[in-house]
Amino acid sequence: GDNRDAAYFSDYDASYTLLPEGNASFLMVTGVNHNISGKATYANLVVETAPQDQGVFNASCNGRVGVNSNEYEGTAAVFSPDLEHVNGLFAFAVSRNCSSLSLLAPQTSDGASFGCLEITSDMVSDTDPYRVVSRAYLEPETTTGPAYNELLWPQVTEFVC
């Protein structure tokens, strides 16, 4: 459960969502890489199911569906490649079919694009809700979780296609 080693963020107003199998609807999660900002030693973005808040297990990658702050770099550059501190930001889609986003996904001149976390019906059925949670762990200066009021919350936007 939650403890004082991290700041836990989720989209509480619309916490859980359904994305039907077979369409191109997706969530876009954007935010600050608090590891690069110096407010966290480590950060991650994971998908959880309701109501137990269990991580979504992906047998094909032998683990939970999510990414850590080491994988954030470059994912926001597709939206503003010339922004001075763009590597301090991240952008990940959550989709039933990441390959369906290839036509929607902008790319930088070197071919980079935003990241995508794929949630198949084998992982979560079409009728089971899930949510995206972001965590920022251990502020280097205090060795406890960073203060919520010193962080920018990630933003989750739903695109219905």
Order of helices and strands: EEHEEEEEEEEE
The percent range for helix content is under 10%
Q: Radius of gyration in whole Å, from Cα?
A: 16 Å
Mean pLDDT over all positions: 80
> Main β-sheet, in a few words?
5 strands, antiparallel
Task: Give the termini separation.
Answer: 35 Å
Question: Overall 3D geometry?
Answer: globular
Number of helices: 1
Assign the structural class, choosing from mainly alpha, mainly beta, alpha/beta, alpha+beta, or little secondary structure.
Answer: mainly beta
State which percent range the strand residues make up. 25-35%
> How many β-strands, per DSSP?
11
Low-confidence stretches: 58-63
Describe this structure in words.
35% of the residues are buried. It is built from one helix and eleven strands, in the order ββαβββββββββ. It is an all-beta fold. Strand 5 (57-58) and strand 6 form a beta hairpin. The protein has one helix spanning 34-37; strands at residues 6-10, 26-32, 42-49, 54-55, 57-58, 63-64, 66-68, 89-95, 115-118, 130-137, 155-159. The strands form three sheets. Strands 1, 3, 4, 7 and 10 form a five-stranded antiparallel sheet that branches. Strands 9-8-2-11 form a four-stranded mixed sheet. The chain has a two-stranded antiparallel ribbon with strand order 5-6.
Could you provide a short overview of the structure?
The chain has 161 residues and is mainly beta. The protein is built from one helix and eleven strands.
